[in-house]
Design goal:
By secondary structure, the chain is mainly beta. It is built from one helix and eight strands, in the order H-E-E-E-E-E-E-E-E. A six-stranded antiparallel barrel has the order 1-2-5-8-7-6. Strands 3-4 form a two-stranded antiparallel sheet. Strand 1 and strand 2 form a beta hairpin.
């Protein structure tokens, strides 16, 4: 199953630069903005990746990508900060990493969501 996920990431993913502990490496995965596009969408909404508040970004990358909370990922001219990173498993095999990011320097301070 992990091979299937890795094939999808390789074939359809985007190259991104992951910075972790002062070391940069290229990872291939998916990165999607999950912020609302209009004032009518102010409420949180359930997406294919789950319920995520506005102004955040979802990352899916290789299981061995090595991303951790506090690391950054660069895509184009922008840098994003990982707020949360988890491995997702099928049985005992780690299939991929899922991350929740915010744009660095713009929305990278934790705020109350209440």
């Amino acid at each position: 199953m992990r091979n299937v996920v890795e094939d999808v990431l390789h074939k359809y993913g985007t190259d991104m630069l992951l910075a972790s502990n002062g070391v940069e490496k290229t990872v291939r995965g998916f990165f999607r903005a999950v912020n609302s596009k209009s004032w009518q969408s102010m409420e949180s909404e359930a997406t294919l990746l789950g319920e995520i508040t506005r102004g955040q970004y979802a990352y899916i990358g290789p299981a061995d990508g090595g991303a951790k909370e506090g690391d950054t990922i660069s895509l184009g001219e922008k840098n994003y900060l990982f707020r949360r990173v988890e491995l997702y498993y099928y049985g005992n095999d780690a299939l991929y990493q899922w991350g929740l990011c915010v744009e660095k320097g713009v929305n990278d301070i934790w705020e109350s969501q209440s």
